[in-house]
DNA sequence: TTGCCTTTGAAGGTT
DNA sequence: AACCTTCAAAGGCAA
């Protein structure tokens, strides 16, 4: 976790969500669905720097203080004196508040539901929680998802009003990310699947995470990938929903993930496999065997009914190839999950 | 201390 | 147009 994230977490917690994980109700109380937008972009939270808007001294939630320590300006360097050296300019740039991206629908959903899932599942690892949340997201009804899309849309609107010149590109490079390896060919990927499967069978580096406490069963991240066994409660809704835009998640089939940390994925897959085996026993057949092979399944982007794409204005108007129905993907579970970008 | 993991969606860049 | 890359949140974990 980088520094800005830490700061933000601290900000979020201190801003009222004191029990970040202890009390599942707290999150909802402070970030209820209908107040998520306002809590982030409400006028009283407006960034002081934004022209024409009231200032309160309360930093905007989307703003994160610059990473660099603020050094006291030398007395000789008055702002009025405008012969700025490159160093000064650089410092000023560094001091520029970090305006964060507005949250998308899923992020808003996660924010609201995380604590609940944590409480239900006694899980804390976000990676696992997010898998569960991803699955829950796809199980949401269209109306429920629309609610979050609408919120996200408002967030974006408000964000663009507050920061008209802001671009998502501004934040590029703020997070240091491991360089992504070049995309492997499918042959290579298949090879890697096999290798990862081998790793799965042979070693598990990380300690196990308990996904399914016996007393409090919950959605397993495994099922999110193996959801052919565990299809959405309303498959038609999932298919119809632009949120689960019929296209399969091309990224999820990307083999890159296999190259990053196979042992970790193998570890996750171990749990997934265990979960799946029990699921498979329960679900008496059919679906899985009838599914086309994962990697060869074409993107059903074109199969998306245009009426559905166009219908509710609150849903995203566009679809990307990688926006998909992971619900339909699955299979070797974490072995085929989306790469680390 | 820092980056990865993991999810979906948005946005901007590249092919 | 299609594809690719990055970042948004979160907290445990590894280096």
TrEMBL record:
<dbReference type="InterPro" id="IPR036910">
    <property type="entry name" value="HMG_box_dom_sf"/>
</dbReference>
<feature type="compositionally biased region" description="Low complexity">
    <location>
        <begin position="78"/>
        <end position="88"/>
    </location>
</feature>
<comment type="similarity">
    <text>Belongs to the TCF/LEF family.</text>
</comment>
<feature type="DNA-binding region" description="HMG box">
    <location>
        <begin position="99"/>
        <end position="167"/>
    </location>
</feature>
<feature type="region of interest" description="Disordered">
    <location>
        <begin position="73"/>
        <end position="96"/>
    </location>
</feature>
<feature type="region of interest" description="Disordered">
    <location>
        <begin position="162"/>
        <end position="257"/>
    </location>
</feature>
<keyword id="KW-0805">Transcription regulation</keyword>
<feature type="compositionally biased region" description="Low complexity">
    <location>
        <begin position="231"/>
        <end position="250"/>
    </location>
</feature>
<feature type="compositionally biased region" description="Low complexity">
    <location>
        <begin position="184"/>
        <end position="194"/>
    </location>
</feature>
<keyword id="KW-0804">Transcription</keyword>
<keyword id="KW-0879">Wnt signaling pathway</keyword>
<keyword id="KW-0238">DNA-binding</keyword>
<protein>
    <submittedName>
        <fullName>Transcription factor 7-like 1</fullName>
    </submittedName>
</protein>
<dbReference type="InterPro" id="IPR009071">
    <property type="entry name" value="HMG_box_dom"/>
</dbReference>
<keyword id="KW-0539">Nucleus</keyword>
<feature type="domain" description="HMG box">
    <location>
        <begin position="99"/>
        <end position="167"/>
    </location>
</feature>
<keyword id="KW-0010">Activator</keyword>
<dbReference type="Pfam" id="PF00505">
    <property type="entry name" value="HMG_box"/>
</dbReference>
<dbReference type="InterPro" id="IPR024940">
    <property type="entry name" value="TCF/LEF"/>
</dbReference>
